[in-house]
Amino acid sequence: MRQVCVVGVGFSQWGEVWRRSLRGLFVDAAMNAIKNAGVDHLDSLYVGCMASGPFVSQEHLGALMADYLGMKGLPAMRVESACASGGMAFRQAFIEVAGGFSDIVMASGVEKMTDCSGDDATAALAMAADQEYEVFNGATFPGLYALMAHAHMARYGTTRQMLSAIAVKNHKNGAKNPVAQYPFEITIEGVEKSVMIADPLHILDCSPITDGAAAVIVTTEEIARKLGKPYIKVLGSGLATDTIQLAHRADLTTIKASTLAAERALKMAGKTIRDVQFAEVHDCFTIAELVILESIGVYKPGQAGPAILAGETALEGKFPVNSSGGLKSKGHPVGATGIAQIAEVYKQLTGQAEKGRQIPGSPKIGMTQNMGGSGASSVVHIMEVA
Amino acid sequence: MTMFSSRNWREYPQRYRLEASKFKKSGKTYFPPRAVDPETGDTAQEMVKLPDTGKIVTYTVIRTAPSQWTEIAPYALAIAELTDGTRLMAQVVDCDVNAVKIGMEIRIEFRRIQSESDHGVLSYGYKFVPKWY
After folding, report:
1. Is residue B55, in this structure, part of any structural domain at all?
2. Is this complex's ipTM strictly greater than 0.90?
3. CA A215 → CA A172, A350, B42, distances in Å?
4. Cβ contacts (< 8 Å) between A197 and chain B: which residues?
5. Does residue B30 lie in a domain region?
């Protein structure tokens, strides 16, 4: 297996981007990544996208995106695993370079979510759950995470304030991120006074609907070195699945797919979770960030909440989480999220995070955790400074 | 989303009659039925009907609902564990949504789930009601 590196990253504008289409968002991010890495060609392309069909009636994204990037003929395909599509696309690029099939691969993600009504967007996102046994009975995504939140509160005494603190912390980080859809700070009181969506989750516990794309260039260490640009090494990649239905999981207070994915990625990296110094995790809802930090072993069950309240996951804390602002503040164009997480770890490890949001102490090892649906799929990557 | 009647009809044994699969080797029951026992890989099974009582293991109240459900919002949604240990998700009805709690005893009843516009297909299935009801 060859050493795989990330050598450049690019974003489109994120938010409610009326001026850009699905393909326009992708091309913006892809061209920025190519320029950032300084590569003169690609050997192949992966496009992570959850639901371009329901959102904008467009499928067949491999061909479409290669064509509009001016690279018709390029091997290109789409990867889908609900909200984990981006992380999975990155994993495919990693495998292709590690296995020696290609030398320079673009892993990208894109979602165009505001060309349809809020109702249609909600319905599209719900396709990540079990249509016949969850959605049919009235489940929504906030509803599924709310079910986990109540279970966690009942078992461990997790409080409303702990959840609010996650949203506040992520907005504080996102306020300094130029990509962020909602780059402003919020307060604990503000979260708790915001509209109730699904008890106990308010609107400010939920990640927003976002248009956006992100892309990274994945290559060998030899090429990365030759390019002369800052690069990072990918040490491990782990992927796991779980039951599609929440009701079929014996323990509703943990997300086992992320536990397994983290174990697999750490094993490949030859590291333990104690070696990891910061993480980008999938905070589609505040409770998700809390449950994930316990599921991947950063904290013992029931201990993430108190640690978050104590500021341990803040930018200057012991284990900074979501320095980018997370899905909460940065936005959540579902297919792009997993790639944006990789791009954030790249920026942090190469010291290129924007002013005021660089993690202090020059961390050497970071991780990403991206997941689909209510955690039925999860993908984890471990990266190290070169 | 348009609910074609064939799609709904395929689920009748579960939605109308709570039919589940019980695997011979492990004795485990799965709802809805599946071809392979996830624990043993066994395929030998028999059809059983789920018990119709159990307890709520977790719940939420959907207060901001998609248009399909605004008519009934706020509504309670729960996962219940039935007396045989199987778990399923359904709405909790016939009580104040604020009265729904973890540990609450429920019974399963046959109810209308969705109506697809004024002229569309009506879908029926199961909901939880408080056991005392």
Report:
1. yes
2. yes
3. 25, 17, 44
4. 62-64
5. no
Is A202 in the active site?
no
Cβ within 8 Å, pair A133-B89: yes
**Is A381 one of the annotated active-site residues of the chain?**
no
pLDDT digits (tens, 9 = 90+) for A312-346: 999 999 999 999 999 999 999 999 999 999 999 99
Contact between chains at B1 and A147 (C-beta distance less than 8 A): no
Residue B86: CATH number of its domain: 2.40.50.840
Dist. CA A44–CA A190, nearest whole Å = 46
**Which domains, ranges and CATH numbers included, belong to chain A?**
4-117+210-232 (3.40.47.10), 130-206+235-385 (3.40.47.10)
Closest CA to A79 of A97, A59, A55: A59
* Look-up of token digits 């029926």: B124
- Is B96 inside a domain boundary? yes
Q: Is this model's pTM higher than 0.95 or not?
A: yes
Are the CB atoms for B86 and B23 separated by under 8 Å?
no
Q: Say whether A154 and B123 touch across the interface (CB within 8 A).
A: no
- pLDDT, one tens digit per residue, over B43-63 is 999 999 999 999 999 999 999
Closest chain B residue to A124, measured at CA? B1
Q: Which of A138, A154, A246 sits opposite B79 (nearest CB)?
A: A246
